[in-house]
Description:
Elements: E1 7-12, H1 15-25, E2 29-33, E3 37-42, E4 45-51, E5 64-68, E6 71-75, E7 77-83, H2 84-95, E8 103-108, E9 116-122, E10 128-134, H3 137-140
Parallel strand pairs: 1-4, 7-10
Antiparallel strand pairs: 2-3, 3-4, 5-6, 8-9, 9-10
Amino acid sequence: MELTPFHIAIPVRDIDESRDFYGAKMGLSEGRSSSDWIDFNMFGHQFVTHLNPAIGKQGKIAQITNPVDGHGVPIPHCGVVLPFDTWREFADRVSGFIEEFIIEPYIRFEGQAGEQGTMFFADPSGNALEFKGFRDIKKDLFAK
């Protein structure tokens, strides 16, 4: 089956703040937008931020965590699987502005089937994001 782009929409506390974070800092290009939402191109996928005034200007999305490999993985989270070199470049980019990673970039399952780079961080509204990098996505993404 041919892989097609996903569409995901998330709530944010401030549209201008999301434009700065996802556009200026993360480097995602902006598509259509209004005063209440913005479409971003997240590595070929449609990622949309929608204003949710109920969060409040200083508020954040509540998170729970699930223990995985000695880390507290935030639930829910979303992100993109990338080729390894792209993941490494992206990790370097976000390391320049993310003050506190939820899980810092590291290599998981090193030397094993499914080896991957992974990192978790949150946007200013508290939405958790994970980005993974594989050397061979087709072979390793679902490796056991």
